[in-house]
Structure formats: structure tokens, C-alpha cells
UniProtKB/TrEMBL annotation:
Region (Disordered): 76-98
Keyword Lyase: no
Protein species of origin: Seriola lalandi dorsalis
Top-level taxon in the UniProt lineage: Eukaryota
One Pfam family matching this protein: Ribosomal_L1
Cellular location(s): Mitochondrion
Entry GO CC: mitochondrial inner membrane; ribonucleoprotein complex; ribosome
Main location, first listed in the record: mitochondrion
Name under which the protein is recorded: Large ribosomal subunit protein uL1m
Segments of skewed composition (Basic and acidic residues): 77-98
Family: Belongs to the universal ribosomal protein uL1 family.
Length: 346
């Protein structure tokens, strides 16, 4: 429908030949369409920025009205503590009355050639392991003079979740491995003690004047011992010497210089590695069987002295091997002296 002015009066002319009565709501539909288009145009203008059109940019715009409520943000609660997984206790299976070990084929193999994982590991007596090492050397045509090592796994647990601290120890072997004596340096400023140290076989003796030569690598030794009065003065060497720094626990601090020198000149040092392992040499394979056994017993007794005996066995697993042989598990309890049985009170 179009409106025009004719002679002072407004007349309407329908654009439809069939008249406006056929579409009585056409005006309503047109207004609705224009509102929708206007809304789409506003959204486009807001997204792309102002554009120059016939409509003034300063004209009041109808901002869109949000017809829904915003979701209320939840307050963050305290950090939820992760649920602690309950540690499953290891299942201990008693195989004493079984015809074969649990998960294994049999107690012992029948043939000479077999798959190791199908049978329980054989643990030998100490005397048998020494004989086997010597036989391996003959069968493999390897040198007779080769070192013999042990590998011990220790149970470092104590009462009330305490643990034995990793330690370093020096033991006097009945049959020394080395032919040459260790170089020992003694820290003392007393003239009498210095004289006694030199007579007892110390390689170097002195006081604070030895600090700078040691830092400059002009002087080095296998072991360092000191009298108690010298400990505060040699503190600058703590980072340089590290584990060799004199300590009371290692027996390298004291006033009995001859006794300390006698230990460290021919002593054998070992330490706990990786929290619970002791790996050290105990003998040479060409030594007599009794000498190897004696050195092994001395080391095991010294290791077990670092934990109370009433806490149970300190050595969980013991292995012995030569430089070229396979590893053999042995019974460490047979080497250690058995505790004396308590007399029953009558």
C-alpha cells in the first residue's frame, strides 16, 4: 500500500490487485521483519566496528537485553587432598609343605640344562661357593690372580620408622689384599704427637700449614686422621676431602695415633651405597680357601655391628663372585657367629 498527497488530501492506493482485506496482518508481519533485521544489523555492527550509513552514529541504540541469568560461579573449596592409596601388604606364601614352590616347576632341576626362572634360586654354603669360584677359573681359563667381590643387601630399618644411616667403615683384614701400605696423613700441632706419628709410619704430619698444599693438590693421601683439637682448624678442607674428612664415627679422630695408624695403614675401607648395598673386594682368588673365608667373615661381622643384634638379621641377601665368574648366592648366617643361648633360670 502506498500513500500520496493529492489536492490536500491523503489517498492510499493498494499495490495488490486483490485488495488489502486479503492480508489483514501484513503491517504486523512487516514490523516484525524489520525488528529482526534491525537486531541482526546491530549485532553485525558491534562485531565489525562502526560503518558509515545513512543513520547517524550518535543516534540512540537499543542495547540487547539478556533474558537469562548468568551462572553463579562456585567458590573454590579447599584443595581436595588426594586419596591415599592403601598399600597392599605383600602376600607371604609358605612353601614348606608344598610339593613344589608357588609359581615354579619344581624344587630342583633334573637336567643339567634348564631355564632358571622356572626353579627357585640355589643358595649355597660359603665353603661351596669358594670351591665353585676356583673351579670356574680353571674351566674358563681365566687368570688365577683376580679379585673376589661380595654384594650385600642390608635391612636398614629400625624401630619407629627409623633407619640406619649409611656408613663408611674401615676394617683390618686378617690377610691383606694390597701389598703396599696406605698413605696416611696426620693432623697435629703437638711436637710429641708428631714425633710418634712419624715413628709409627705416617706419610705426612703437620698442622694448619698443610691445608693450602692439600687444596692445591700438592699433597694427597689415602686416609686422613686428626687429633680433636685440629678439627676446627681444618674445616676449610671439608669440601675438598669429602668422605675422607676425619670423623669420630669412622675412627679417624682420636689421641691414640699409633693405634689409628695401625688400622688405616693396612685397613680395608667399604661403604654403604644406594642406601642399603655394600659392594667391596674381600680377597684374591689365588689365596687359600681359609684366607678367603677369614676375610669374608671379618667383613660380615663388621657390617652387622652397625645395627643392634636383637633387630633380626641385618643382611637380607649376600652374593659372592670373582672378576670373571657368575654371581653365587650364599648363606651369610653360616659365617656369622651365633648368639649365645640364654640360660634358663631355674
Amino acid at each position: 500500500m502506498v500513500f500520496y498527497l493529492s489536492g490536500g488530501t491523503v489517498q492510499s492506493v493498494s499495490l495488490f490487485s486483490h485488495g488489502p482485506q486479503v492480508f489483514p496482518d501484513m503491517a504486523t508481519c512487516t514490523r516484525t521483519v524489520w525488528k529482526v533485521l534491525a537486531g541482526c544489523r546491530r549485532q553485525l555492527l558491534n562485531a565489525s566496528g562502526p560503518t558509515y550509513t545513512g543513520v547517524s552514529q550518535t543516534a540512540q541504540r537499543n542495547l540487547p537485553v539478556r533474558t537469562f541469568a548468568a551462572v553463579r560461579t562456585l567458590k573454590k573449596d579447599k584443595k581436595e587432598e588426594p586419596e591415599k592409596e592403601e598399600k597392599k601388604e605383600k602376600r607371604v606364601i609358605d612353601d614348606s609343605n608344598r610339593h613344589k614352590p608357588y609359581g615354579k616347576t619344581a624344587w630342583a632341576p633334573v637336567d643339567d640344562v634348564y631355564i632358571i626362572r622356572h626353579y627357585p634360586r640355589t643358595v649355597y654354603d660359603v665353603s661351596d661357593t669358594i670351591d665353585m669360584l676356583k673351579n670356574f677359573q680353571v674351566l674358563d681359563f681365566t687368570p688365577r690372580s683376580q679379585p673376589v667381590y661380595i654384594d650385600l643387601k642390608l635391612d636398614m630399618k629400625l624401630e619407629k620408622k627409623r633407619r640406619v644411616d649409611p656408613f663408611v667403615s674401615t676394617v683390618h683384614l686378617p690377610y691383606p689384599i694390597k701389598t703396599q701400605m696406605n698413605k696416611v696423613l696426620v693432623f697435629t700441632e703437638d711436637a710429641n704427637q708428631a714425633k710418634v706419628a712419624q715413628e709409627s709410619g705416617a706419610m705426612f704430619v703437620g698442622g694448619a700449614e698443610l691445608i693450602q698444599p692439600i687444596l692445591d693438590d700438592e699433597i694427597s693421601a689415602d686416609f686422613y686422621i686428626a687429633v680433636p683439637d685440629m678439627l676446627p682448624k681444618i674445616l676449610p678442607l671439608k669440601n675438598k676431602l669429602r668422605k675422607k674428612f676425619p670423623k669420630n664415627k669412622r675412627g679417624s679422630v682420636g689421641t691414640n695415633i699409633p693405634k689409628m695408624l695401625d688400622l688405616f695403614k693396612t685397613g680395608h675401607e667399604y661403604m654403604v651405597e644406594s642406601d642399603c648395598y655394600v659392594r667391596t673386594q674381600i680377597a684374591m682368588l689365588d689365596m687359600p680357601k681359609e684366607h678367603i673365608f677369614s676375610n669374608l667373615q671379618t667383613v660380615l661381622i663388621d657390617v652387622c655391628s652397625h645395627r643392634p643384634a636383637d633387630m633380626g638379621p641385618f643382611i637380607e641377601r649376600a652374593i659372592i663372585a670373582s672378576h670373571t665368574s657368575e654371581a653365587l648366592w650364599f648363606k651369610s648366617g653360616d659365617v656369622l657367629p651365633k648368639p649365645a643361648e640364654k640360660k634358663q633360670e631355674e
